[in-house]
C-alpha cells in the first residue's frame, strides 16, 4: 500500500506564546516543536507539506528546501490552512494532517491512527484523547450509538459538551477523494471569523461517509502547546522520554529528574551522570565517563573515560581520559587532550592542550597551543590580549611554567624550558632554557618589628 502524504499545519502566530518567534520554532529539549512533528512522520510518509504563514521564512530556513511549503497569508483557521495545501495533494490515497504544536505524539500512535482508518475504510479518522482536564481543546461529541458526530471548540460548547473528556488532538487521517470533494465547502465560523477543520466532520457524515475516532493510549502525549506553561509541561515529559531511552541503553543517572539532555544528544553506555547536569545541542559523550554534578556541556564532544565535574564546556572536545573541574570553564575551540588534567578555577579558550599536560589550579589559557607533558603552575596566566588584538602562545612539550607566571603573547616557550615562579615572560624562551623575570629579593635583618610593632627577638 502506498504511504500517505502528511500535511503539517504551522502557519499560526501562536499569540498565546506572547513572543515574536513563530510558535512552532519554540524549542523543546533543544529542537523546535515542529521538528518533533516532522520526525514522527518521517518513516510513515515520504511527502511532507508544511503550511506556513507567520514567520514562514524562519521555518523554511530551519528545515530547508527538501519539503514542500504552502503559504497561508492570513491565518483564517485550521480548515483554511488545509484548503491552501489541497491543490498540491494527489486526488486519491490518504493524507495525515497534523498540527505543528503537538510535539509529543509518537510515530507509533500515527501508525495506529492509519491502521484504524484503513480497517474501517473511513473518510476521516480523528486521533482523540481522554483527558482528566479537557480545558482548551475541541470536544469530541459522540451520538447515542457512540459514533463521532462533531467536534465542538470550547468557545462554542454548552455546559453538557464541556464536561466531555474526549478531546480532539488535532491529528487526522483523511481519504483524499472525500477531502478534495468536501473541504472547499467549509463555512466560516462567524463568531471566531475562522474556517474550522473540525467542521468537516458533519459535512462528511451528511454525505454518508464514515468518520472514526482513534483514542491515543497515552493521553499526556496529546498535549497541544499554546503557551509557555504548556511548553514547560511538554519539556518535562520529553526529558523523561530522552533520559529513559538513554538509561535503557546503559547510561546511569543518580537522579534523572535533575538531568537535562537535549533531543539528539548521544551518550554511550557505562557513563554515569550526577544531578544538575545539562547536555545541550550537538553534544556526544563516549563510554564510561562521569559527568557532574553541575556540569553543562554545549555542542561538545566527550571521548571515553572523561571525568567532568561542576564545569561548563562549550564547542570543544575532551579527549579520552581527560579530567576537568571542579569549576572549570572551557570555551569554544578548545581541545583538551588525552589524560589532560584541568583543575579548579581554570579557564581555557580556543586552545589545544597536549596529552598528559596539567593545568591544575587558577589559570587562564587563551589562544595557546600547549604540547604534551607540560605543567602550568597554579595561577599561571597567558596574556593573550594587548587591548587591541589577540596573540598566540606556543608552549612546547615538557615545559614547566612556574606558579603565578604571566606569559605575554605572542610568545613561544621551547621544549623542556623552565620558567621560574612569578615571572612575567615577554621574550621567547629557547628549548631547555631556564627563564626568570622577577625582581631580586632583599632580606633586611631585624626589620620586621618596625612593620609589626614587635620587639626584635634576641
Ligand atoms: C485545534 C483544534 C482543536 C484541538 C486542538 C488540539 C480546530 C478548529 N481546533 O485548536 O479542536 O483540540 O487544535 O491541539 O481545528 N494553524 C494554521 N493556520 C491557521 C490556524 C492554525 O496553520 O490559520 C495551525 C497552527 O500553527 C497550529 C495548528 O494549526 O500548529 C493548530 O492551531 P491552534 O490555533 O493551536 O488550534 P487550537 O485552538 O489549539
Ligand atoms: Ca493548539
Word description of this protein:
By secondary structure, the chain is an alpha/beta fold. The chain folds into 2 domains: 5-222, Spore Coat Polysaccharide Biosynthesis Protein SpsA, Chain A, CATH 3.90.550; 251-435, 3 Solenoid (UDP N-Acetylglucosamine Acyltransferase, domain 1), CATH 2.160.10. The longest helix is centred in the middle third of the chain and has 21 residues, at 228-248. It starts with a strand and ends in a 6-residue tail after the last helix. 43% of the residues are buried. Uridine-diphosphate-N-acetylglucosamine is lined by residues 9-12, 51, 72, 75-78, 80-81, 99-102, 137-138, 151, 153, 167-170, 196-198, 224, 226. The site of calcium ion has 4 residues, from loops.
In brief:
The protein is α/β, with parallel strands linked by helices. The protein has nine helices and 41 strands. Strands 14-17-20-23-26-29-32-35-38 form a nine-stranded parallel β-sheet, with no helix packed on it. Strands 5-4-1-6-10-7-11 form a seven-stranded mixed β-sheet, sandwiched between helices.
Give the helix/strand layout.
Elements lengths: L4 E6 L16 E2 L2 E2 H9 L5 E6 L3 H8 L4 E4 L6 H8 L8 E6 L7 H13 L4 E7 L8 E4 L5 E5 L6 H4 L3 E10 H7 L17 H7 L4 E5 L12 H21 L3 E2 L5 E3 L4 E2 L4 E2 L3 E4 L3 E2 L4 E2 L4 E3 L2 E2 L4 E2 L3 E3 L2 E2 L4 E2 L3 E3 L4 E2 L4 E4 L1 E4 L2 E2 L4 E4 L2 E3 L1 E3 L4 E2 L4 E3 L9 E3 L4 E2 L4 E3 L2 E3 L4 E2 L4 E2 L8 E2 L12 H5 L6
Parallel strand pairs: 1-4, 1-6, 4-5, 7-11, 12-15, 13-16, 14-17, 15-18, 16-19, 17-20, 18-21, 19-22, 20-23, 21-24, 22-25, 23-26, 24-27, 25-28, 26-29, 27-30, 28-31, 29-32, 32-35, 33-36, 34-37, 35-38, 36-39, 37-40, 39-41
Antiparallel strand pairs: 2-3, 6-10, 7-10, 8-9
The structure holds uridine-diphosphate-N-acetylglucosamine and calcium ion.
Calcium ion binds next to loops.
Amino acid at each position: 500500500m502506498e504511504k500517505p502524504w502528511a500535511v503539517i499545519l504551522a502557519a499560526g502566530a501562536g499569540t498565546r506564546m506572547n513572543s515574536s518567534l513563530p510558535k512552532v520554532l519554540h524549542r523543546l529539549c533543544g529542537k523546535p516543536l515542529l521538528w518533533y512533528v516532522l520526525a514522527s512522520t518521517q518513516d510513515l510518509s515520504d511527502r511532507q507539506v508544511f503550511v506556513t504563514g507567520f514567520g514562514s521564512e524562519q521555518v523554511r530556513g530551519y528545515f530547508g528546501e527538501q519539503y514542500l511549503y504552502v503559504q497561508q497569508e492570513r491565518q483564517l483557521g485550521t480548515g483554511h490552512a488545509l484548503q491552501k495545501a489541497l491543490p498540491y495533494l494527489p486526488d486519491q490515497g490518504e493524507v495525515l494532517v497534523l498540527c505543528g504544536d503537538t510535539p509529543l505524539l509518537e510515530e507509533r500512535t500515527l501508525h495506529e491512527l492509519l491502521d484504524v482508518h484503513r480497517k474501517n475504510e473511513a473518510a476521516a479518522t480523528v486521533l482523540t484523547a481522554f483527558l482528566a482536564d479537557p480545558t482548551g481543546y475541541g470536544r469530541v461529541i459522540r451520538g447515542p450509538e457512540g459514533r463521532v458526530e462533531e467536534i465542538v471548540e470550547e468557545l462554542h460548547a454548552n455546559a453538557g459538551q464541556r464536561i466531555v473528556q474526549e478531546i480532539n488532538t488535532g491529528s487526522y487521517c483523511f481519504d483524499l477523494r472525500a477531502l478534495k470533494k468536501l473541504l472547499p465547502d467549509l463555512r466560516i465560523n462567524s463568531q471566531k471569523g475562522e474556517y474550522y477543520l473540525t467542521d468537516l466532520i458533519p459535512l462528511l457524515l451528511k454525505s454518508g461517509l464514515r468518520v472514526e475516532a482513534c483514542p491515543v493510549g497515552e493521553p499526556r502525549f496529546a498535549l497541544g502547546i499554546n503557551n509557555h506553561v504548556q511548553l514547560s509541561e511538554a519539556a518535562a515529559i520529553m526529558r523523561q522520554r530522552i533520559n529513559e531511552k538513554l538509561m535503557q541503553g546503559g547510561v546511569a543517572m543518580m537522579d534523572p529528574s535533575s538531568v537535562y539532555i537535549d533531543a539528539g544528544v548521544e551518550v554511550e553506555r557505562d557513563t554515569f551522570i550526577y544531578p544538575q547536569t545539562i547536555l545541550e545541542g550537538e553534544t556526544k559523550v563516549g563510554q564510561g565517563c562521569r559527568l557532574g554534578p553541575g556540569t553543562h556541556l554545549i555542542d561538545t564532544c566527550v571521548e571515553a573515560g572523561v571525568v567532568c565535574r561542576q564545569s561548563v564546556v562549550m564547542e570543544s572536545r575532551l579527549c579520552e581520559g581527560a579530567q576537568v573541574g571542579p569549576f572549570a570553564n572551557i570555551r569554544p575551540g578548545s581541545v583538551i587532550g588525552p589524560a589532560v588534567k584541568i583543575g579548579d578555577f581554570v579557564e581555557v579558550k580556543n586552545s589545544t592542550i597536549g596529552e598528559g599536560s596539567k593545568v591544575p589550579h587558577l589559570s587562564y589559557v587563551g589562544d595557546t597551543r600547549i604540547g604534551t607533558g607540560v605543567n602550568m603552575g597554579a595561577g599561571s596566566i597567558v596574556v593573550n590580549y594587548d587591548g587591541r588584538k589577540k596573540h598566540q602562545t606556543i608552549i612546547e612539550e615538557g615545559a614547566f611554567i612556574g606558579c603565578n607566571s604571566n606569559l605575554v603573547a605572542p610568545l613561544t616557550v621551547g621544549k623542556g624550558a623552565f620558567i621560574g615562579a612569578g615571572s612575567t615572560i615577554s621574550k621567547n624562551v629557547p628549548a631547555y632554557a631556564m627563564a626568570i623575570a622577577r625582581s631580586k629579593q632583599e632580606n633586611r635583618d631585624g626589620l620586621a618589628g618596625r612593620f609589626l610593632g614587635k620587639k626584635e627577638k634576641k
